[in-house]
Specification:
heterodimer, A: alpha/beta, six-stranded mixed β-sheet, disordered C terminus, B: alpha+beta, eleven-stranded mixed β-sheet, 11 strands, elongated
């Protein structure tokens, strides 16, 4: 495990049911994720890729195995500690955006920072900066229902970044977007990974993403079936020094 | 953000929010009205003895209150009683429940016949006109007068004798009886039997009751001396024994209805916004923070409901003298504060079910498109 390794996932299992009803949603996956990595997890429906993402995101407890964050096993954390870990270290981006419909765009971005008990002035400053970076400043007072899919996903990205997390987990981030918006979202995610040295893990069926990521991992029946390099570099203009991303 | 999210979640479904808050308001108004009526009834029940001006009441042994028990005492003992050491003044009084014709219909009233010279057990408060100062004069309870359209200077027939209304009295509506006041001399004349008895002797005195008891019994065998406060408390006991259990039961129902409405409204809001809670859980919100949202929502509904309920109560209270003339509303600040605290309690209890729902939220659900 190198210094740049953020996550080390070791033989993780998630099984449901017993004996005849046993479902092996994730079955012995191991991988390492480094800073600046952009990983694409692919696989057919029901292959376990979203389950793997939720395990990494500490939303599910594994049946066995370890997830080490900078060498510490985070699967052993209690419920409140897991929530705090998600809040501080992980940014989530969802297929259906998952914005709070009763809050406007700005409030949707800032809510994660308020939950993290950041100072109000810093929250406003950071949210303003992110909205500007993602080109949605003018839409900040709009409710999610008044925004396009692309705009909503940008708000979701801003929310994911507001606490400056080290890991971004994106579940089918382009599935509900037209091709142009989808491309833009992936471009943003890759730029974030490159420029801010974050690890981005994307679960997607979208083949176009392959050209933008560093590594493509295929999962079938809960097992890791293939690992190959992506076309990373076409999007990122600022290449970081090579960072190892090993998969076992 | 906590307040903002709670409020916005509530008002997102505006109609439901308004219906919920009005429903809670009506439940709280019901509680306030019941407590107001109860406190009004207490005030009404105690008003006559407390405003009688007497320190002690001489009554027949066994007499408790002014409504249910009758005291029969020998007349013409005033001067004998006056001779007891420490007695400053003595006045006999009659309390005679009867029926008189007002506006063509028989109306139950209580006649208080008293001595206008001492004014002991006279009208508690003259709210219109003047006190009795000569014969054939009547002071009428103001709510009775309003209800029956009685005017100052008008006449009322009692036992085939015409009385002129010279004044209106406040504090003389004791729920079961609304009182009319006349002089003892007039009462003697309208009674066919003459003055064969009196109901009470009212005394003002600085002497302790124990010192008088023996002397009084010598003058009026079979009588007892009671503090004015005792008579007032026994009047109150009649109210407590009769209407308090009913009012208490209705208050409990009102509070239970309020809690249910708060709970249902917050539960519905929580259920409708369950995905929001799941999103917040997924991104790192603690259950305690989300529970605070539910409690705050319940508090907003309860507080809004309290505002509506209290406003409704005070509107009703101001209209009550006209619309509900025999009912007096009386709600002091401590009672209002107690209901406000009850409202806070209501919001906490009302949030319990939604909180249990929040605790069961599975954040993985947010990954379902």
């Amino acid at each position: 495990m190198s210094d740049s390794t953020l996550l080390s996932i070791k033989n993780i299992l998630k099984h449901y049911g017993r004996e005849k009803t046993l479902v092996k949603a994730v079955d012995g996956v191991s991988l390492e994720v480094n800073r600046g990595d952009i990983l694409l997890i692919k696989g057919p429906s029901g292959s376990g890729k979203t389950t793997l993402l939720t395990l990494i995101g500490l939303l599910l407890e594994p049946t066995s195995g370890q997830i080490l964050y900078k060498g510490t096993d985070i699967t052993k954390l209690g419920q409140a500690e897991r929530a705090s870990f998600r809040l501080k270290k992980i940014g989530f981006i969802f297929q259906s955006f998952n914005l709070i419909p009763s809050l406007n765009a700005f409030q949707n971005v800032t809510i994660a920072a308020y939950l993290n008990k950041n100072k109000k002035t810093k929250i406003v400053e950071k949210a303003t900066e992110l909205l500007a970076l993602l080109g949605i400043t003018k839409r900040s007072s709009h409710l999610p229902g008044e925004l396009s899919g692309g705009e909503r996903q940008r708000i979701a990205i801003a929310r994911a970044l507001i606490n400056n997390p080290e890991i971004i987990l994106a579940d089918e981030p382009t599935a509900n977007l037209d091709s142009k918006s989808g491309e833009e979202v992936i471009k943003m995610l890759c730029q974030i990974a490159c420029q801010q040295n974050k690890a981005v893990i994307i679960v997607s069926h979208d083949d176009r993403i392959e050209t933008s990521v560093k590594q493509i991992i295929t999962i079938e029946d809960g097992k890791l079936s293939a690992v190959r390099k992506g076309g990373h570099g076409k999007v990122c203009q600022h290449e970081h020094k090579a960072q190892k991303s090993s998969v076992s | 953000m906590l307040v903002k999210l709670s409020l916005r979640n509530l008002v997102f479904e505006r109609v439901k929010f308004i219906v919920g808050i009005i429903s809670v308001g009506l439940a709280i108004m019901l509680v306030l009205v019941l407590l107001g009526v109860y406190n009004g009834a207490i005030k009404q029940a105690k008003s006559l003895p407390e405003n009688s001006g007497a320190d002690y009441w001489i009554v027949q042994k066994g007499t408790r209150d002014m409504f249910h028990t009758v005291s029969i005492l020998a007349p013409d003992k005033t001067s004998d009683l006056q001779g007891i050491d420490g007695v400053e003044s003595v006045s006999p009084a009659i309390n005679a429940p009867t029926s008189i014709s007002l506006g063509g219909k028989d109306t139950a009233v209580g006649i208080i016949a008293y001595d206008p010279a001492t004014n002991l057990l006279g009208p508690p408060e003259i709210t219109g006109g003047q006190a009795i100062n000569s014969g054939n004069q009547l002071v009428v309870d103001e709510s009775l007068a309003k209800q029956n359209g009685l005017q100052l200077g008008g006449s009322v027939e009692i036992f085939n004798r015409q009385f002129s209304i010279v004044g209106f009295s406040g504090g003389s509506n004791a729920i079961a009886f609304r009182y009319v006041f006349m002089s003892l001399n007039d009462y003697k004349q309208i009674q066919s039997t003459g003055e064969s008895f009196v109901n009470y002797y009212l005394i003002t005195s600085d002497s302790p009751i124990a010192e008088m008891q023996g002397e009084v019994e010598k003058i009026l065998p079979g009588s007892t001396v009671r503090y004015t406060a005792e008579v007032a408390d026994d009047n109150l006991a009649v109210i407590n024994d009769s209407i308090l259990p009913i009012i208490g039961f209705l208050v409990v129902i009102g509070v239970a209805v309020g809690i249910m409405i708060v709970s249902i409204t917050v539960y519905n809001t929580t259920t409708e916004r369950i995905r929001d809670y799941a999103i917040l859980t997924a991104i790192g919100a603690h259950h305690s923070w989300l529970s605070k949202v539910a409690v705050l929502q319940a508090f907003i509904i309860s507080t809004g409901g309290f505002g509506i309920g209290a406003s409704g109560y005070f509107i009703l209270q101001s209209l009550a003298p006209e619309a509900l003339r025999s009912i007096e509303f009386n709600l002091s600040a401590p009672w209002l504060l107690a209901v406000a605290l009850l409202t806070v309690l209501m919001s906490i209890i009302g949030a319990l079910i939604p909180i249990s729902k929040i605790k069961k939220i599975d954040p993985v659900e947010v990954f379902n498109a």
